[in-house]
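Review form for a predicted model. The reviewer records the input and the model, then writes brief findings.
Reviewer: anonymous (R2)
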Amino acid sequence: MEEIKKGRIRTAESVTEGHPDKICDQIADSILDEVLRQDPASHCACEVMASTGIIFVMGELSTKADVDINAIVRQTLKKIGYTDADSGIDAEHCAVITTIREQSPDIACGVDRSEEARLGEEEALSEEGAGDQGIVFGYATNETPEYMPMPLMLAHRLAKRLAKVRRENIVPHLRPDGKTQVSIEYDEANRPKRIDAILISTQHDAQADQKEIKEQLWDRVVKECLDPLMIDSQTRFYVNPTGRFEMGGPNADTGLTGRKIIVDTYGGEGHHGGGAFSGKDPSKVDRSGAYYARYVAKNVVAAGLADKAEIAVAYAIGRAEPFSIAIDTFGTGKLSDEALLQIIQKVFDFRPGAIIKKLDLRRPIYAHTATYGHFGRTDDRYSWEELDQVETLKKYLE
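Model under review:
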């Protein structure tokens, strides 16, 4: 067969809920959910570390809620499937060490009432200020129905399916830790053309046969998830390239909250401001600002104003109005980026208090976001995925 001439290759990865970093994200967001369930006005910045036989929970918490952190840690580990030391950590017998303090009053005074409000510049004197300085980005592309980069969506799809076949014992001998990776070849028009490579690394027990695992993962994971028209004879498929993956979870790799920020966002497409999401209440613009930037970018692309778009927003701690807002449509805009920026500033309100209200972010919705990405999801937890401004934006093309 004639050798395929490869164009541009883009690659993205995902991880299962049993990955050590994702354990930490899920614990942090489960704590946040319980805090918000009891007291929606809470401020939470929760960090988690997982190592051999031990979970550390650290951070700042200002709340009226009474939260059993120890129980949440153990429930989360059990739900993932870490029920004995051989699996990676024992939910029942691991140590849980907690060090939590109140949020700094120097931060709280600017979050509860913005600098503009304190200076009499705001009509609503209770307008919230940003919980920190920072730069956030939102991205959207029309290359998939979810308005997300295809390599990331396929990697997430594989990771979800990998977890399912493990939990339901569809593929035997698997354990919770796992990672996936997909490489897509793009054509001259920058559209997805074919799958160039697929990688699955999955933890397994000592009885597993690597050849059998690879065959079963192809049949019960890859073929269940990926479009066969995107796969050809040149597509490469790898499973556990080191030859074995028995030791996994926190026994093999220390986990930390917020260390999978590219998996959580756009798989490396566009930019990232560096701020993580999990464990942070919506007053933290690292989270709420990034959610809103995604909301704006997705509506812009869905309205046909551009084939892809990135929104960048900068905040200052204690201030409500952003320091700056920018849009980049990578040459695909139907209007100039300058014109599009004027439009989005008319249609969208980027102040933290307005974002929290618009997206209804003081709900206990966050544990679900801690795995398989915060964007490109469809259920009603993900209010930032709604396309309710498409018709308004389309009018600017008339």
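Findings: The radius of gyration is 22 Å.
Further findings: The longest helix spans residues 20-38.
Recommendation: see findings above.
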